[in-house]
Structure formats: structure tokens, C-alpha cells
Amino acid sequence: MKQHRHGIDIGFPLEAFQYVEVWQGEGSPWKVLLSSANAQIVSDELLMRFQIWTLVPWNRSDTFVEELEKDNHLYDVCAHNRIGGRRVESTATTLMISRVQQLEEGVENCQSRTFQCSYCYMEHMVDAKDFGERGLAVITTKWVNFGAGRETPDAKWKSHRDRYGDRDRREINQTDEHRRSLREDFENQAEVSLEDLTADNEKKLFSTRKPQVVTRAPDGCVWRWRYGTRWYLDPSGTTGSAWEYWL
Ligand SMILES: [Zn+2]
Ligand SMILES: [Zn+2]
Predict the structure, then answer these.
(1) How far apart are CA 188 and CA 199, in angstroms?
(2) Residue ranges of the domains in the chain?
């Protein structure tokens, strides 16, 4: 089993990082959110792929956009989302708002390009889908490199928490035009392709869930209700709360 180490000697099996969870918006129960995580070791480094879906009924799309326009940290993709000088068009919320607008205009392919944070090792992309009577969904996918964990502290790991990110990362960004793409690194070796993951998450989003300890949905999904607020797909190596900061 591949192990990843961060700082002190703690080993984690990769499966422990995998999960799918679903919950309803706090204070906005009309909103359904799904998030998933997959881990992979590439060149000795721990790479994670997170995908988060927000399903909104069409009659709430304006409310949703208003919510996104507010100073909303809920949808930040990393700690550097609102650092001065960062181009506004690449922030997750701006991308989400423009995706909703594209759907309203009937645009079929709303997928954004992949953006790279200049401060930490993170790339993200936003997409949206029209589900007609079931509503619209905005989908954010991000790829995060947590580093090899051989040094303490690991510069890559640290870059995510550090307000000013990683110096090498910033310098590389200024000089190297052919930056390695995290997304490519992950996807080239991914067990489940991004396309398959997205299709799978879509199915899970519309799966049957009840507020009871266990729901066995007709589609085969087994959902566990936890903390009176969230469903976790069983089996999941971990609960999403372990990743709260990164989502
Ligand atoms: Zn960042
Ligand atoms: Zn980060």
C-alpha cells in the first residue's frame, strides 16, 4: 500500500483520503452540495482531486448569484482567493457566477479553462450543467499538490496555509512558461478519469437519501447520515470534515 507522509511519521493509506458527501445549504436548504475527494501519489507527491457540486433550483438562481456576489468564503478554492493583484476573473466565485449566466443564455459547454494559483500548488476549473426541472448545477474541480512530505515543513504543504504562499512557486511562475500542470500530472495516472468521476458524481447527486442512519438507494448507493446534517457514501475512507479547510 502506498503511504504518504507529512512532517512527523504518520502513514496514511490512500483509500483513507477518498470520500463522497452530500448536504443541504445551511440557511439555504434549497441548495444541495456534493463533494468528493480522490488521492494519488505522483512522483512521490500526494496529489488530491476535489470536486464540489452545487445544485440549485432554477427559481433560486438569482438568490444563488447574490449569495456568490457577497464576500463568500464558502466557495474559496484556496487561501489566496482574494489576494490583491490576483486577477478577478479567475476567482472561483466569479467563475461560478459567469457559469450560471452562461446557462441562462443557453450555452452548452460552460467549462472554464484551468486556472493555477500563483501562490500555492493548486489548479481549478469550473463547469455548469442544466438539469431542467431538477435545476442547475455548478461544478468546481480542483487539483492540489500536498508535496512529498519528506522535509518538515514541506514547502508545498505549507504553501496552502501560508498567506503569501510559496516563494519558489511565485518565482517559478515568473520565469517558467512551461509550468508543469498539476491537473495533467493527476489525470495522466488517475484510476478514474475526470469524465467518469463527473458522471459518477452526477448520478450520486440525484441518488435517494433519507435523514435516517442508513439509506440503501435503488441505484446501489449506501448513504450514511451523520451529525444530523450530512450523508456520506459508504464505504468512504474518511469523512469530509477531515478536509473542511481545503474545500
Ligand atoms: Zn493558492
Ligand atoms: Zn492551496
Answers:
(1) 18
(2) 3-246
